[in-house]
Amino acid sequence: MEKDNSGSFFNYLPEGCRMCYKGAKMVLFVTGVCGKNCFYCPVSYERREKDVIFANEKRVKKDDDIIEAALLMDALGTGITGGEPLLYPDRVVYYIKLLKNRFGESHHIHLYTALAPGREVLKSLRSAGLDELRFHPPPHLWANIGKTHYRDSIVEANELGIRVGIEVPSIQADFRGILSLLEEVGGFLNLNELEFSETNADELKKRGFVPVDDVSSGVRGSKEVAELLNNSRLHFCSSLFKDAVQLRERFKRIAKRTARDFDEITEDGTLVYGIIEGDGLDILKDAGVTEDMYSVMDSSIETAWWITEDLAEELKRAGCRVAVIERYPMKNGMPVEKTPL
Fold it and tell me: 2-253: what fold?
């Protein structure tokens, strides 16, 4: 098994996950409507059972919002999720075609579903360009999944040329049916560490689940379930992965495209620069700072953090307020820290 610094481990990574490790997968949330009410569902109140669309963190109002989000992070692929995306199959097909037409066939698209779509829906998904389909059957069917409509759908998708897998939370259960079916079709098993969220905490507590420790949202014992399984195509994704790997790598990709000449990109993909509030432009010019190394805003000047630091005393004597800012790399990204000088 290979391991990473987030606690995830695998002996096989689907293509969608490989891109996720690079921070290169856009997340396209096509609806919050689902109706399954899984006790472990972590979807936020902002999105849960609401027919809303998001591209990463951006609310989608038009097609260009999706394209812009993909361009911003130089996305190599997209993961389509929800809610239950296939409650709106025409919408899913439309967005697959939109992305494939704009970015080409190499733009890898995977889809999550808790349904077992029939042949016609699967054919339309494949024709649109879907590369990978991740099924999420309910836990009470796992042991005997080979006798359910999920088996029919998984076998059908595989025969149509869609890469198939099952992605479920890592909880105590009888996985023999799932493992047997995946072996039959050469499919993969993605196990997500069960984790507490604002929306599922009460349900998890009712069932006796407790956190790993005081700082982790992961559930105690979830990782151990995955460690005991023996499957040739297994991937355990930890609760830390999103922040420790996926989000950080995505931020780095965005930062490379948005950083100005004077911005410093951190190891976390955030941007660091200096800010001068007040009339400090002449001081910058007198110090020989070139125009490419500062930006005049409405009520401030932004420049390299080290220039701000070097000129801090002179700027303050002139009545300016100076600080170093660290923020997310998107346009108008949220500040992480502001350090006055």
Answer: TIM Barrel (3.20.20)
The single residue listed with the structure tokens 């600080």 is 323
Q: Which two tokens stand for residue 82?
A: 């929800």
Contacts with 213 (C-beta within 8 Å, 6 or more apart), sequence order: none
Give the separation between CA 307 and CA 171, rounded to whole angstroms.
53
Give ranges for CATH 3.20.20.70 in the chain.
2-253
Alpha-carbon span 222 to 236, nearest angstrom? 10
Q: Are 252 and 263 in contact (CB under 8 A)?
A: no
Q: What share of the chain is helix, strand, coil (3-state, %, to 5)?
A: 35, 25, 40
Q: Which of 186, 196, 175, 194 is CA-nearest to residue 237? A: 194
Distance CA 242, CA 108 (A): 19
Report pTM. Answer: 0.90
Reading the chain (341 residues) residue by residue, the pLDDT tens digits are 899 888 999 999 999 999 999 999 999 999 999 999 999 999 999 999 999 999 998 999 999 999 999 999 999 999 999 999 999 999 999 999 999 999 999 999 999 999 999 999 999 999 999 999 999 999 999 999 999 999 999 999 999 999 999 999 999 999 999 999 999 999 999 999 999 999 999 999 999 999 988 888 899 999 999 999 988 899 999 999 887 888 899 999 999 999 999 999 999 999 999 999 999 999 999 999 999 999 999 889 999 999 999 999 999 999 999 999 999 998 888 999 999 99
Indicate the residue type of 216: S
Instruction: Decide: residue 254, CB within 10 A, 0-12 exposed, 13-18 middle, 19+ buried.
Output: buried
